[in-house]
Design a protein that fits this description.
The protein folds into two domains: 217 residues, Aspartate Aminotransferase, domain 1, CATH 3.90.1150; 254 residues, Type I PLP-dependent aspartate aminotransferase-like (Major domain) (Aspartate Aminotransferase, domain 2), CATH 3.40.640. The strands form five sheets. It has a five-stranded mixed beta sheet, with helices on both faces. Strands 9-12-11 form a three-stranded antiparallel beta sheet. With 482 residues, the protein is α/β, with parallel strands linked by helices. Helix content is 42%, strand content 12%. α5 packs parallel to α6 and α14 packs parallel to α17. The model has no long low-confidence stretch (mean pLDDT 95).
Amino acid sequence: MKRIEMKYLKEQPLELHKPKVVSKINLLDVDERYKAITKATNNTFLLRNEDVFLDMLTDSGVNASSDEQLAASMRADEAYAGSKTFYRLEKAVTSLLGLPYFLPAHQGRACEHIISRALVKPNTRTPMNYHFTTTKSHILAMGGIVDELIIDEGLKIQSDYPFKGNVDLKKLDDYFKKYSKEEIAFLRIEAGTNLIGGQPISFENAKAVTERCKKAGVMTVLDASLLQDNLYFIKVREKGFENKPISEITKEFCQLFDIVYFSARKFGFAKGGGIVLKDEKLYNKMKEFVVMYEGFLTYGGMSTREMEMIAVGLEESMEFDVISQGPIFIDYMVNELVKHKVPVVTPGGGLGCHLDARSFVPHIKQEEYPAGALATALYIVSGIRGMERGTLSEVRNPDGTEKLADMELVRLAIPRRVFTLSHINYAVDRIIWLYKNRDLIGGLKFTREPETLRFFFGELAPTSNWQEKLVKKFKEDFLNKY
């Protein structure tokens, strides 16, 4: 794409696709939305999708499929073992990522499970740029310890630093002085650091980290689930990559690591995932876990139709016009909210727009889950389903006290090829209204709290009648306006 077109698209995003099939969505009135979030026990994961207008919970498994993907799905070989479809997918993955051995799995957290079972032993440590919820849970379940080595800039909400997902190299050097290779299971890098706002890591930093690990004898693992966004940022923000093809950047980046895993629900636009490795011995060890927990080696818990779609989706992800769409729309949404002084994570990253709940509702204590409360308030006033990424997503300390999160974010994911600019503008309008009335928002408390991954299915209630007051104010303002 020529520079002039790119400049225009950043200022005025355009959908570089056209719809061929559409799905109806419902915009309930505010009283119905209040009833729905109450029935869902104030957990946006427990809302019924029929009650959601814009589903910004995640971009995982909800991206729109292309016509080429759907066409490819019709040639799927449904064999249980030895499917031609598997070998097409294997060739697509290994040639694209540049590592020789491929194991299929049904999604990213299945890959995390297999890697953790193979590599994590009790009391071994896993350093990383920043944790992800399910990754951390799998490591902890195997008795491991997670250590975060993110640069200080990564935890600053507002910044113009282009690669906030970078590892602090000084911290890493000190880490290797403190712990021997026998004490470290592996080092993990997340490309497109989810919990700090989808912020990317630079190629230069990834190279420096993996070189240090090789010297220290420590295995390196890349979570490539959000790689497509990270590739975009490397190409447009990092010197020396502006003229390189996306496929070339992808291979060079992935070949820095010993193991790469991905959720195709994000990277590949279809439902599945996989692990690629350099080491044949480790590949053979992990095979057993695939068969035990996922399915046979040539489907790994995926349908063959999805596998065909992943192969095409990965190929499409090598097109700049495809991978630029998410970041451009996210950047637009972030900039529109910044104009109205709404606190958001900057610069705009991948995955979605992230509201800074700590600044949005500073009167709510972290123990009352400000990000979770803000997510419910946003649903009530808009029908938009977002995801809490804060203290609610953490695991309690061993003594039962809350582990307060570094950030309190509400993630508003933007699935690829799903929303139009008018949808984004609607979201911006409702968020601005909510920010002007933020003093009405109160906290939440658990009524039923699971021990593991509580944010998925825990049940909560408001700490006061603040939701009723919010509904009343909303009706007053919008009835007067319309």
